[in-house]
Amino acid sequence: MLVLTRKVNESLIVGDDIEIKVVEISGKAIKIGIDAPKDVSIYRKEIYEAIKEENLQASNRDNIISLVDFIKNK
Known about the structure:
The chain has two domains: 1-39, no CATH class; 43-74. Helices cover 38% and strands 27% of the residues. It has one helix at 45-72; strands at 11-14, 18-26, 29-35. A hairpin with a 3-residue loop joins strand 1 and strand 2. The radius of gyration is 21 Å and the shape is elongated. The model has no long low-confidence stretch (mean pLDDT 90).
């Protein structure tokens, strides 16, 4: 993991077209701004993990339904 120190209004660049900027620091929290192309999805990690889990559960349900349909048609 790369660890960098940044101050308010300082940025870092990811790739050629993503900029992450420190907007505000208040106590133990920071606000960051992310400037990225519209086709780049940006999620908080906990939301991303929830989406992955939901997709996995949906996939499992779809697989079970497909298996049941396959067995019924035999």
